Please model this.
Amino acid sequence: MSATLRPLIPAERIAARIAEMGQQIRADHPDCSITVIGVLKGSFLFLADLVRAIPGDVRVEFLGVASYHGGTSSSGAVQITQDLRASIEGHACLIVEDIVDTGLTMDYLLRTLQVRGPASIRVASLLDKPSNREIDVPVDYVGFTIPDEFVVGYGLDLGELYRNLPYVAVYEP
Ligand code: 5GP
Model:
């Protein structure tokens, strides 16, 4: 049986929402450089568009984490696969995620980065699936709240496929 990709969020809506988020993020960080921390790999397209929507000074760092191991449900275990290259001590940081689902990954990231002495840490996620939350985490900037369905596209994968779709789709096996 072949899988179906049901379009959920078209590219135009993603672009319009990211433009708003960029302005909001800058308004909340007046007169300072923002260290944007992209969580690999799923955030790479969102991050690329978001940093271009944030006026003023921005630094870009990447953090690799693994939490899903190629399937459509979380293993619950979070692991850093690539650490930051630079210190974030004293920096205004923005963690950029593709999706917050159970919240376990974000909780782990916040606890891991908080001890490094940043001036502040905020969180931006393209997608939020609050119905599946297991742990309460602050998500300061949400692109779109979606139902508890497995989505792919615009950076999000299933077994490393579909990241290159320019829109977000529900994966229906
Ligand atoms: P959490 O730890 O919040 O459960 O999950 C965070 C990570 O799980 C995300 O960064 C993403 O990699 C993966 N994830 C959660 N929901 C989905 C989904 O619907 N589609 C895809 N492709 N990945 C998801």
About this structure: Residues 42, 67-68, 74, 97-106, 150-152, 156-158 surround guanosine-5'-monophosphate (CB under 6 Å). The two ends are 8 Å apart (CA to CA).
